[in-house]
Amino acid sequence: MTAPSELRRLFSLWRGLPVFDGAVRYRARLDRAELTLTTRHGAEATGHAECLPGRYRILVSVGYDMADAHATLLHEMAHVAAGWDRQFHTREWREVFASAAAQITGIQVAIPRGSHFAFHDLIRDCFATARRARRTA
Predict the structure, then answer these.
(1) How crowded is residue 135: how many other Cβ atoms within 10 Å of its Cβ?
(2) How do residues 18-60 score in pLDDT, each as one tens digit?
(3) Quick one: CA dihedral 133, 129, 81, 62, positive or negative?
(4) 35 or 4: whose pLDDT is higher?
(5) Dihedral angle of Cα 69, 78, 43, 57, to the nearest 10 degrees
(6) Which residue of 54, 110, 116, 127 is surrounded by the most CB atoms within 10 Å?
(7) Among 38-47, 85-94, 104-113, where is mean pLDDT lowest?
(8) In sequence order, what are the residues at sequence separation of 6 or more whose Cβ sits closer than 8 angstroms to the Cβ of residue 22?
(9) Model pTM?
């Protein structure tokens, strides 16, 4: 399970990723975002981003395994950075999510069409692979 302090540390660290720093609007939104951690576990574990005028909040459950918690945090950070209108998982969101994950894990992924759940799982697997590689290095 991921410790809350680890998610807070990563939230602060990841705000400085080149993909987020490269676009002023991305950085401005993330600088105003607050992170709220919940203690839901198992099937109730979730992530969510709320974007209200001038206020951005990212909610992440700490009941995930490490790779899923990292992917969920980044998934929601990409939502805040890319923003949304009527669609949540836009092409822009997918590009931000994939680019940020590649900058963190060193693994480039092709942006798939279709379900954002499958895309999230692909990014989660990148985090797990990168973690295993660091342990064996």
Answers:
(1) 7
(2) 998 876 778 788 888 899 888 766 656 677 777 777 778 888 8
(3) negative
(4) 35
(5) 100
(6) 127
(7) 38-47
(8) none
(9) 0.86
3-state secondary structure the chain: CCCHHHHHHHHHHHCCCHHHHCCHHHHHHHHHEEEEEEEEEHHHCCEEEEEECCEEEEEEEEECCHHHHHHHHHHHHHHHHHCCCCCCCCHHHHHHHHHHHHHHHCCCCCCCCCCHHHHHHHHHHHHHHHHHHHHHC
For the CA atoms of the chain, what is the radius of gyration?
14
Classify residue 131 by burial, with Cβ atoms within 10 Å: 0-12, 13-18, 19+.
middle
* Backbone torsions φ then ψ of 52, nearest 5 degrees: -115, 160
In angstroms, the Cα distances linking 3 to 60, 70, 82, 119, 130 are 12, 11, 27, 24, 19
